[in-house]
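quick one before i forget lol
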Amino acid sequence: MKIGASVDGRIIHLNSFLPTSDQLPENMVNIMAMGDAALHLAKDAISSYLSKNNTNLGTIEELVDLQSPILNPSKIMMGGRNYLRHLEELRKEGATRQEKIVTPPMPHIFSKYATAITGPYKPIIYPKIVKQLDLEGELTVIIGKRAYFVEEENALDYVAGYTIMNDVSARCLQAQGLLLISKGFETFCPMGPYLVTKDEIPDPQNLTVKTYLNDKEVCSAHTSEMLFSIKQFIAHLSRIFPLEPGDVLATGSPPGPGMYHNPPILANIGDVMRIHIEKIGMIANPVIAATR
């Protein structure tokens, strides 16, 4: 795999535009560990490409097999119950099972397996044991440097950038209390299409998130609606365990996942799950049948 950047609709291989003495690792987690030095080198590479005034030195984006911006994070932290309108949906659904859903007093977190990660346009495999497949589009934070016991007001200093995640979920298993399993299947964590650096998104609490099944809009929300902000998430989590470069933090599903519509809007084989987040782009993953 090679590390690239999107420039005016083309993908450039960053190391192709850097001197041999200043090469970047071809691994995003290792790049994150370099801190600001890596960002400066990436910007130098982009400037070098632009100075040559030859777009043929880049590859048309549609011809590039884009992978997830992060493939091997030490942690994938999933925010839950973090939009008030989604919390109301959960309360209504919980009432049918006589389950009381309370407003979390602190950020609600669970985990997802790194083996579930897949690319922004890769197929999502519909497992044979799953009967209800749903999508959740989430603004996702990539940690840029080690954060341990950080203060809320400084929390964004530890962010490298932002991407999109689809927290694909098997609702039939989630309803049985099997949260980790319901979200842990292979391909259940598409991410991308890029890691947008934090300097390009100065206020992550001012973004529109839209989720589509095929061309039908399933969800539309704004990150200002979060119960806990990204700053609060990072400060809280950093008091539990160190956050490492390349760690992934999904900030929770906005209201409107397919399961909470009446009737439910669930994915079938042949459908395409699409997530769009303002200033980041869109991921689009077709659903295919499992072969085993």
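fyi The chain has a mean pLDDT of 94.
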